[in-house]
């Protein structure tokens, strides 16, 4: 069976944008619907009596996958929610500084800007020049901006527009030693790149299961190390430990029961982990990587703009290439879809436009060839002011 048949994706679309919202395979979707049916079969048993134990079983499986303690993780709807909980919770005082990079996801830049404005703190974007030549240079760029007012270091482990894996470990170890809180945006990490959260230097980590772990939309988690859990204040206040729960953890009790809500997506996570084990084995990952290199070489040849990545070691299942300045990226994206049904994102960052390809097990070489062929055809037609 063709692997694409395991997914519900429209067969008429060349889907090269797994990165934006993921894609849920049919077996996971079935499991999701099964949980929903169970919920509606006996709502009181499901949500009233079994809520905590169902979530605990699922959290334990997720925690094995992330090498984290199950009591240091809570399910949330998306990475945006996790990061908002963290950012609002940290006790920023007037004059405090949050250091991010110039490569962050726009919504998270906006979040820090607004929260810092509200609290009288400052959000500063460290300039990271691309390609990143070494971890040392990356750390140095940050450390030049660190001072006594620095309270938080924030960065994406895999960036959005530029699809780069950032070297965060050394930086966060230094942050730890200086009492600076590290907040990692891992929206694209789980399922794409392995992490061992408990032995990592990260204080807080926000991850999506609905992107690269194949979970239904609205499935994500917030990880907090034990020594910083007391900082977290839930954005939604419900019963907390007053509800009869299985957990000894205030963090879990405060964050897990948020009133009546559908937890079915969270309960599919054990199946998502098995699906990943079965379909994204070493062999499959090597094939995806080879196809990514092939796509990168083709994009480079067609677009002829400077590379933002030295070696593909910094890319895993996504690759982004800068568009020439005279290309109207919006028009290009639209034409790729309207004329050829190729779904691929183009985004802007720091005055540059990037086209980003995502590859997943369901993608095949002929799709990449088709994309490269149409990219070459359209790039000279979609010029700024050519409408
Ligand atoms: C780096 C990064 N952070 C955060 C997010 C937000 O993820 P979500 O919409 O699932 O909250 C995205 C979404 O693509 C992202 O790329």
Would you list the SSEs in sequence order as H and E? EHHHHEHEHEHEHEEEHHHHHEHEEEH
Largest sheet: 7 strands, mixed
Bound molecules: pyridoxal-5'-phosphate
What structural category characterises the helix and strand content?
alpha/beta
Number of helices: 15
Shape: globular
Order of the strands making up the biggest sheet:
2-8-7-6-5-3-4
The proportion of residues in beta strands is 5-15%
Structure summary, number of beta strands: 12
What is the first-to-last residue Cα distance? 43 Å
- Could you report the average pLDDT, rounded to the nearest whole number? 97
User: Could you name the ranges where pLDDT drops below 50 across 5 or more consecutive residues?
Assistant: none
Helical residue percent band: 40-55%
Gyration radius over CA:
21 Å
Task: Set down the secondary structure blueprint.
Layout: E1 14-15, H1 18-21, H2 26-41, H3 43-49, H4 51-66, E2 73-76, H5 79-89, E3 97-101, H6 106-119, E4 122-126, H7 135-143, E5 150-156, H8 169-177, E6 181-186, E7 204-208, E8 220-224, H9 226-229, H10 250-256, H11 264-267, H12 269-279, H13 282-303, E9 318-322, H14 329-340, E10 342-343, E11 346-349, E12 352-358, H15 365-379
Parallel strand pairs: 1-10, 3-4, 3-5, 5-6, 6-7
Antiparallel strand pairs: 2-8, 7-8, 9-12, 11-12
Helix pairs in contact: 2-3, 3-4, 5-6, 13-15, 14-15
The protein binds pyridoxal-5'-phosphate.
Pyridoxal-5'-phosphate (PLP) is lined by residues 20, 78-80, 105, 108, 156, 160, 185, 187-188, 208.
């Amino acid at each position: 069976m063709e692997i694409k048949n395991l997914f519900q994706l429209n067969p008429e679309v060349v889907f090269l944008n797994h990165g934006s919202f993921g894609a849920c395979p049919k077996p996971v979707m079935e499991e999701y619907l099964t949980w929903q049916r169970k919920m509606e079969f006996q709502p009181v048993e499901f949500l009233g009596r079994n809520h905590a134990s169902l979530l605990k079983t699922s959290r334990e499986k997720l925690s094995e996958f992330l090498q984290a303690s199950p009591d240091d993780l809570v399910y949330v709807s998306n990475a945006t929610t996790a990061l908002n909980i963290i950012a609002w919770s940290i006790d920023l005082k007037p004059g405090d500084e949050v250091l991010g990079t110039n490569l962050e996801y726009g919504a998270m830049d906006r979040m820090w800007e607004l929260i810092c404005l509200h609290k009288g703190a400052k959000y500063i974007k460290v300039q990271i020049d691309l390609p990143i030549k070494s971890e040392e240079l990356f750390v140095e760029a940050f450390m030049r901006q660190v001072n006594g007012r620095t309270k938080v270091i924030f960065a994406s482990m895999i960036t959005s527009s530029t699809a780069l894996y950032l070297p965060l470990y050394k930086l966060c170890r230094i942050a730890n030693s200086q009492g600076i809180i590290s907040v990692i945006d891992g929206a694209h990490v789980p399922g794409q790149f392995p992490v061992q959260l408990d032995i990592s230097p990260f204080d807080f980590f926000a991850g999506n299961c609905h992107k690269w772990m194949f979970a239904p939309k609205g499935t994500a988690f917030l990880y907090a190390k034990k020594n910083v859990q007391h900082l977290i204040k839930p954005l939604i206040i419900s019963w907390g430990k007053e509800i009869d729960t299985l957990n000894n953890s205030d963090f879990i009790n405060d964050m897990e029961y948020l009133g009546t809500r559908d937890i079915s997506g969270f309960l599919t996570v054990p199946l998502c982990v098995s699906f990943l084990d079965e379909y994204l084995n070493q062999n499959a990952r090597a094939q995806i990587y080879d196809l990514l290199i092939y796509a990168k070489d083709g994009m480079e040849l067609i677009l002829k703009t400077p590379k933002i990545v030295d070696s593909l070691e910094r890319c895993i299942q996504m690759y982004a290439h800068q568009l020439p300045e005279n290309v109207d990226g919006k028009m290009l994206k639209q034409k790729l879809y309207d004329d050829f049904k190729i779904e691929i994102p183009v985004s802007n960052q720091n005055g540059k436009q990037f086209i980003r390809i995502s590859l997943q097990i369901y993608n095949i070489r002929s799709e990449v060839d088709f994309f490269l062929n149409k990219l070459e055809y359209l790039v000279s037609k979609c010029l700024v002011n050519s409408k």
